[in-house]
Please model this.
Amino acid sequence: MTDTSARLAALRDELARQRLDGFIVPLTDEHMSEYVGGYAQRLGWLTGFGGSAGSAVVLADRAAIFTDGRYTLQVREQVDGAHWEYVGVPETSIAGWLAGAVREGQRIGYDPWLHTRGFVAETAAALADRGATLVAVDANPIDRVWHDRPAPSPAPVTVHADAYAGESSAAKRAGIADWLASQRADAVVLTALDSIAWALNVRGGDVAHTPVALAYAIVARDGTTDLFVAPDKLDDAVRQHLGNAVRVHDRAAFAAALGGFQGRRVAADPDRAVAAIFAALDQGGATVLALRDPVVLAKARKNPVEIAGHRAASIRDGAALTRFLRWAEDACAAGGETELSAAAKLLAFREETGCLLDSSFDTISATGAHGASPHYHVTPESNAPIRAGELFLIDSGGQYRDGTTDVTRVIPVGAPTDEMRDRFTRVLKGHIAIATAIFPDGTCGAQIDGFARRPLWEAGLDFGHGTGHGVGSFLSVHEGPQRIAAPNYPGGASLEPLRAGMMLSNEPGYYKPGAYGIRIENLLLTVPVAVAGGDPDRAMLGFETLTFAPIERGLIDATLLTPAERDWLDAYHRDVLARIRPALDPATRDWLAAKCAPIAAG
Model:
């Protein structure tokens, strides 16, 4: 746990100088990104929290950090309870907490470049009801006291070739132009970094694990585009790739450019564009259309080239993971390995492919009780030895030019208990239920989320996160709009219709606090399915499994599997063996063959 008390005191002094009685600190950047560059890690700097979702509120006499159920254990390990109250969301919102904490006449500050318009409206209303005021700051007070704050990344922008993208940037921008015409809009403001990367077929290195560049874009009704990015990030090859239809401006000029749409209809996404953007458009006389970014759905439905690329990346990644699993089975049992050493070994196996560009997120390398925190992030301070009698969970992924991977496996160190085998098998049954699901085209993820939970529910158990998230194509490992989740889990329900070409994760789990965690994760592709005897006018969908690595047979209680579930597992393991065996050395091939042998009936 980092001692952050001096930072909290310095922020309170700065708030007093600005005549503010409090300040709201989100974990995001001016693009509403999930993962942010070091310069934007204000919440982590202030509190010590290392999770990927959270917020804080600092008042003169109290402070609170807000996290969801995925981080219940982690936030208590990393954030000092002597200075911070732990508040769970969505049970308690920031607006609701503030309404009970402020006094009449108080002024609570916020950075309008870090919050959505909806959040600002909700919070302002809650404060007004208590006689307090929400105040937009011109300069973030944390930046004034964070004296060694990193500068934004200088990483260059690179071209993402059509051979990987499957569609030219010109064609993508023409599609956006068609959408603008359908909405009777003159332009759309793109603020999500992965939307800009996808639309322009470029990539970057400004955010760890996500190949994007810090930029804004405004696409006009004729498809021409104004790109706002640090000019020194672009070399001649990138400028030539962008062409004359993309006008390049300094990123610092973006805010002023929003004032140039007097009398024009401009679309902006209320979930992805911050409050400051809406305010600037309003003040400039634009008619603002609050519409979802048109790239979001187009990006989610992968084209044939992207699908083929991901299949190739999956085989490469699965072979690296299989080599790691064989190593870990022996090395962890022998002793002397830790969470950090295991994560480093897996990274080395991926690097040996010669194609790895980055991890797709910070590897979750968690043994024993750490595995019970679904988004645990190992640090030198928390690094634990991997001991006999524990379950070791490793959730990881790679960024390759042709695809983004995400996979979770669990390894027993020594003999697992009967309870561990029972829980693992129930998670496997839920995983199979999703993998084999058939549903009408347009079904949403919230409707099938319960398939993964039923085997656990039948034993009075559950897990506190969504079952699946969308995945990008050499982009964000967490990509919307599709997901598989129920309404009462972090992020809310997924009401986005599932369509062919969407990729999702399939990752049910079980977590026993203080003991162990279990999660089995593969990536899936949504595909059309023909059902014999079905209504010929009703299009049906199912899933193709994209991830290939053995599922630990030593943790499976075959007596809990139905014949159909055993058939699925055996068929999956046959596919694993057929697809990745050629990429392995002879000894690992023999090990994999044993791991993929048919499961005997219970």
In short: The mean pLDDT is 95. The chain has three domains: 5-145, 158-299, 304-589. DSSP finds 19 helices and 28 strands in the chain.
